[in-house]
Specification:
two-stranded antiparallel sheet; elongated; 6 helices; mainly alpha; 2 domains
């Protein structure tokens, strides 16, 4: 089954399968299934055409997939253009939301070239 440009897995429960769509999480998937009056544990391969259309109608009022991605990219672009703090963090490819960078964020900061030792010197053998 294909909804909103995303392949929905056939052998998973619908409440989990709908989360494969970008912008749909577990609780939103459950809300859509509640409004469409479809049981949560039903699998995608067991859906009728009427139920598939009910799910599609439920998804129409949410911003999902390409629209959501485009909006996210434009928001980040705007932050970079006005050069606010968050925009500068995006430009430098550093964590944006206040995470510590002294010990964590190795991937974004890059691997250290030289690791610091404990300060203890090796004794020479005589």
């Amino acid at each position: 089954m294909r909804i909103a440009g995303t392949n929905i897995p056939d052998n998973k429960k619908l409440e989990v399968a709908l989360t494969y769509i970008f912008g749909i999480g577990f609780f939103r998937a459950r809300g859509i299934l509640n409004k469409a009056k479809i049981p949560f544990d039903k699998k995608a391969k067991d859906l009728s055409e009427k139920e598939i259309n009910a799910i599609r109608e439920g998804l129409e009022k949410y911003r999902i997939e390409e629209d959501l991605r485009r909006e996210t990219v434009s928001n980040i672009k705007r932050l970079k253009e006005i050069k606010c703090y968050r925009g500068l963090r995006h430009i430098k490819k550093l964590p944006v939301r206040g995470q510590r960078t002294k010990t964590n964020a190795r991937i974004t900061r890059g691997r250290p070239k030289i690791t610091m030792g404990s300060g203890k010197r090796k004794l020479e053998k005589t």
